[in-house]
Amino acid sequence: MELKTTTLDPLINLTRKENGNKDLTDFANHVTAGLSHTPKKLSSRYFYDGPGSALFQQIMELPEYYPTRCEYEVITENKSAIAAHLASEGFFHLIDLGAGDALKTKILLKELQERRAAFEYLPVDISEDAMQQLSSSLEKEIPGLNHQAVVGDYNDSLEWLQQNKSGRKVILFLGSNIGNFEHEESLGFLRKIRSHLEPGDSLLMGIDLRKDPDTILRAYNDFAGVTAAFNLNLLHRINRELGGNFDVNGFIHYPIYNPQEGVMRSYLVSKQEQDVYIQATGRSFHFNAWEAIHTESSYKYTLPQIQAMVEASGFTLETIFQDKEGCFADVIFHAV
Ligand SMILES: C[S@@+](CC[C@H](N)C(=O)[O-])C[C@H]1O[C@@H](n2cnc3c(N)ncnc32)[C@H](O)[C@@H]1O
């Protein structure tokens, strides 16, 4: 049984490449491709640098941001049933994809520890700041927890886990991160997760459900403007890391919900015609007045869509847990 942590490095960084600049080169290439594309687009994965992760923590505390509150309720109310399921077959690796501050996972970790379950916790996140903070908070809040944080993107981390961790695996994918994938990509990603699991392994996924469009829109357009600052931080990050000269005040945060597609889309809209030079790309990018950059999609699901997604990706549906208002679902997928 792989229970000892004393020799484990508390943080594995899969993004530190030998030339030291691989991440920045990837970011610069992404920005060049996205700002040259018609219409312009940037990926939400670049939201989460240090300031972005801190802003997301503030978002999770906003009165309008129901997803965290609802998922917190689902996990708290069902922690005993979930922990019993996870720990039903002896030692397991608990892999938390896009763990962030693991606010909700910590409820399960404490429950598992109380039950003296045999497991190793492996939070994974693209944000090094988030993983450093999580490692130290785990040491203070859950002493004795067997854990090792992995800094890397989902794909590289799944490969690393495949090569380095054998035995039963349970994957957590909370916070409706799946909603950030376009529908076809989400199926591809779930199939990829399934290909890294063995029959009998599980996936616990948090999924935001369709509801009153106004409730959804408010969650991404809060009164205090924290979500606006979070979206605009992407331009600050380009300025900081790639030597951009974005006038961030020349852009506005614009979110819109499409109730037919069940998708919340966020944009950054240029208030005037302008050119932006980005040193690391060696290029200028032109913006027409009111031209937008698409920065995030967040899909909301129905229960039948979830059922279809489970079946199309090589799993069976074990259990659906929901909050009292039916806002959010945490679903156990069983690998067959
Ligand atoms: C919406 S937060 C959710 C955090 C947490 N799971 C929760 O439920 O509160 C998304 C997290 O996923 C991470 N993330 C986004 N894209 C990622 C990627 N491609 N690979 C790894 N982590 C990613 C972000 O850094 C961020 O911490």
From TrEMBL:
PANTHER family to which the protein is assigned, alphabetical: ERGOTHIONEINE BIOSYNTHESIS PROTEIN 1
All copies of domain Histidine-specific methyltransferase SAM-dependent, residue ranges: 28-333
Source taxonomy: Bacteria, Pseudomonadati, Bacteroidota, Cytophagia, Cytophagales
GO BP annotation list: methylation
NCBIfam families in alphabetical order: egtD_ergothio
Segment forming the signal sequence: none
UniProt keyword Glycosyltransferase present: no
Pfam families, alphabetized: Methyltransf_33
Listed name of the protein: L-histidine N(Alpha)-methyltransferase
Entry EC number(s): 2.1.1.44
Source species, domain of life: Bacteria
SUPFAM superfamilies reported for this sequence: S-adenosyl-L-methionine-dependent methyltransferases
